[in-house]
Amino acid sequence: MSVTPGRTHVDHLIVGAGFAGLAAAIKLDEAAERDFVVIEKDSDVGGTWHINTYPGAECDVPSQLYSYSFALNPGWSKVYSPQQEIWDYTRRVAEESGTLDRFVFDTAVLDARWDDAAQRWIVRTEGPDGPREYAARTVIAGAGGLSEPRLPEIEGIDGFQGEIFHSARWNHDVDLAGKRIAVIGTGASAVQLVPELQKVAGHVDVYQRTPNWIIPRNEREFSSIEKTVFAKVPGAQRALRSLVYATLEARVPAFARFPVLMKAVEAQGRKNIAKGISDPELRAKVTPAYRAGCKRILISNKWYPALDADNVDLVTDPIAKVTGDAIVTADGVERPIDVLVVATGFYVTEPPIAQHITGREGRTLADVWDGGGMAAYKGTTIHGFPNLFQIVGPNTALGHSSMIFIIESQVRYVVEAAKALRREGLAAVEPTQAAQDAWTAQIRRKMKPTVWQTGGCASWYLDKFGNNTTLWPGQTFTFRQHLSKFDLDKYDVQVSHQREAVNA
Ligand code: NAP
User: Fold this and answer.
1) What is the pLDDT, as a whole number, of residue 24?
2) Which pLDDT does position 401 carry in this prediction?
3) Superfamily of chain region 2-148+347-503
4) What are the DSSP E strand ranges found in 279-345?
5) What torsion, rounded to 10 degrees, do the Cα atoms 466, 471, 477, 480 define?
6) Which long-range contacts (CB under 8 A, 24 or more apart) does 432-435 make?
7) DSSP string spanning 433-487?
8) Low-confidence residues of the chain, pLDDT below 70?
9) What is the chain's alpha carbon radius of gyration, rounded to the nearest angstrom?
């Protein structure tokens, strides 16, 4: 392989320093695969937990499960952790790991292209010191499934003269006290931020397109005795973690095979509505008309009381347009505002990063997926894209438990792949088309009876073909089992061109 001047050569290039990228860095380091670089577009580790700083941002997965298995945190303050605590946790883990010397912050990956002659990924980045180029044996993409804000396409929104920002790009410079605020969206982010806005705003209009099922959040602080036990009694925290894990896994059959069981969740949701809202008309507006679980089930004790407050209106008429200082709904009503918060979610099934990854045949990942939707072997590797490993790839997300479990499963698989490449003296691996197709067919089959396909809702889990290409349709331990060893026999392999030449 010829070496192009100005290129930095590394074994592994990791994209993103969130939970996925950080785990990959730590586990590669432990496996003595130390020649890597982590490229992060933001200024610190933490990913979504660094970026999402909207008021009230908290995790809706229990704290005991929301940490790496190799770095439990006895200090969590509450049953569900606030954003700042999770971000602090990732910073602590990163510092203690001794890998931060290989992290490059404030640097965006512009594109990645497989160079078949060099058998390397050529990755262009842009950072404070200008553009840079890397040649990497593998690319481990941990850019996150929920990282690119989706802005709503609403007539006139670009001409809005007040303050406007997405929930995931909160503008803390804007003083919200006494302001007239509109929030578009009623998903997981809105449900957390609206109750905080209600406390300080003059008035809040919440624009709801579809209501969600929302059940109570069994929230409480951990006592100092509990924290001491977690820290000092061997196995105590791990036992609680296992219990939480098992409790969440017990919900899987209702999601995946017997959606009718979700009636129990709907009963909980209805009770939550009755408790939080006094007005029958408002109760009706927030009651979903689809099976619970079809969209992500949300947890909150604050959402319904916030909607019931005197300074909040729930608007269900569709938005017709945005003017310079107001939102106009289809019924012609104009509601003036000072601040517009768009809590409209993320690009999930068509991730923008896919447009910037070009594989062996010169096609981008976006082109390849455009024909049939996102697909990857074991949610991690993709035919036509040698040595590309996607963490939180297609059909790996969860509606019921902690993504960190999935991330760790994938990272193990990637590390095993890196070891196999070295052990076998291979230049590249990519899953065979047959292996990938069989995997996808199996996922589609399992997806059929799930609540996500049958529950009667539109959700961000589904792509433009109506397929759920985001969620894992089963128990998380099954996923881990599938990825427990790197199955080289399901891969096309490339030996190094240099070796080919020597052997010729
Ligand atoms: P989301 O769940 O996708 O919600 C977006 C909301 O915006 C929905 O209510 C949607 O309505 C609405 N919307 C989108 N486009 C619209 C338009 N053009 N006009 C009117 N309304 C529009 O996004 P999110 O709340 O940011 O949450 C995304 C995911 O992030 C969650 O599902 C969860 O996985 C994760 N999250 C997790 C936590 C946590 O605690 N762990 C917190 C926040 C977010 P429709 O329902 O009709 O589409």
Assistant:
1) 98
2) 97
3) FAD/NAD(P)-binding domain (3.50.50.60)
4) 298-299, 312-315, 319-322, 326-329, 334-336, 339-342
5) 100
6) 432/383, 432/490, 432/491, 432/492, 433/383, 435/377, 435/490, 435/491
7) HHHHHHHHHHHHHHHTTSHHHHSS---TTB-TTS-B-SB--S-HHHHHHHTSS--
8) 1-3, 5, 502-504
9) 24
Phi-psi region of 364 (alpha: psi -120 to 50; beta: other; left: phi over 0): beta
Q: Is the CB of 344 under 6 A from ligand 1?
A: yes
Q: Do domains 2-148+347-503 and 157-212+251-342 have the same CATH topology?
A: yes
User: What is the Cα–Cα distance from 294 to 297, expressed in whole angstroms?
Assistant: 8
Distance 342 CA to ligand 1 centre (A): 10
Q: How far apart are CA 245 and CA 226, in angstroms?
A: 19
167 lines ligand 1 (CB under 6 A): yes
pLDDT per residue as tens digits for the range 436-494: 999 999 999 999 999 999 999 999 999 999 999 999 999 999 999 999 999 999 999 99
Q: What is the pLDDT of residue 352?
A: 86
The CATH class given to the 157-212+251-342 domain equals alpha beta
HSE-up of 37 (CA within 13 Å, CB side)?
20
Pairing mode, strands 180-184 and 203-207: parallel
Please name every residue paired with 124 in a beta bridge, in sequence order, or none if there are none.
111, 133
| pLDDT confidence of residue 350 | 84
Instruction: Give pLDDT, residue 348.
Output: 84
Q: In what order do the strands lie in the sheet with 319-322?
A: 319-322, 326-329, 334-336
Q: What is the position in ligand 1's atom list of the atom closest to the CA of 168?
A: 26
Each domain of the chain, given as residue ranges in start order, spans: 2-148+347-503, 157-212+251-342
Whether the CB of 186 sits within 6 Å of ligand 1? yes
Return the ligand 1 atom nearest residue 212 CA.
46
